[in-house]
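Researcher: Good morning. I'm working through a list of sequences from a screen, and I'd like to move beyond sequence-only analysis. For each chain I'm collecting a predicted structure so we can compare shapes side by side. This is the next one on the list. No need for commentary yet; just the structure.
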Amino acid sequence: MNYQWYPGHMTKARRMMEENIKLIDLVIEVVDARIPISSRNPDIDILAKNKARLILLNKSDLSDESANQAWIDYYNSKNILCIKLNSKTGAGIKQINSAVEKACHEKLERDRKKGILNRPVRAMVVGIPNVGKSTFINAYAGRACAKTGNKPGVTKGKQWIRLGKNIELLDTPGILWPKFDSQLVGRNLALIGSMNDEVINIEDLAFEAVCFLLEQYPGRLAERYGADEEREPLFIMDDIAKKRGCLKKGAVTDYEKLAGIILDDFRSGRIGRLTLELPQDA
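Model: Good morning. Structure tokens for this chain:
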């Protein structure tokens, strides 16, 4: 299946980010901890060149804990500060201030030498759709100041948010990039819900999810659905459909309904904590 989604507003959003980057001291990139490569827009590296960087592994409660640490070590080895985060519960938020200070140490030191004190750090919050940028901002600010939603494309324009005297955040819309170098990247983005389900075949995507689980997390389908994992993926899906009542007239599998259940369970963590890529894949 070919995965691609780049609606027109993303071009406008990218242009806006290019125009504002000169005002920025720090780029805070929010990625999905389950896919820390695929959820990083390669355009951000170009956009944020010569800027201080901080990567937040958001939704870290949905990914493997051992993989979280492996990714933190990986980015730290590249001199990029990286913190695991769960914006919904606030876990990891207390580490942000010290991380911002560390990332912007050179800028703060230059200001101090010039006699400039208490000038706030200006940070641009970037990330692809549905990684939780706005949820992070609200958790960090301690108030609802950014619109949130569980589907991509909620944030439409830029928004400056002042957090006390020390930091100002620029919230930006989630943007993908015009063409994925690898369809594996597209598959990963689709699996976690960073693409609009309406533009992809969710039945094929659910099949991909089943194949991934069989290969990388054996036992999960059996645990969640009582599935016989010795069978072929399509037969496993038929078995799950029978157990979950996803049948049409004549006991025919309703693959669209089944796909909705499997993908919802996959994305929400009901199948367990999952990491789709590791540092050795980078």
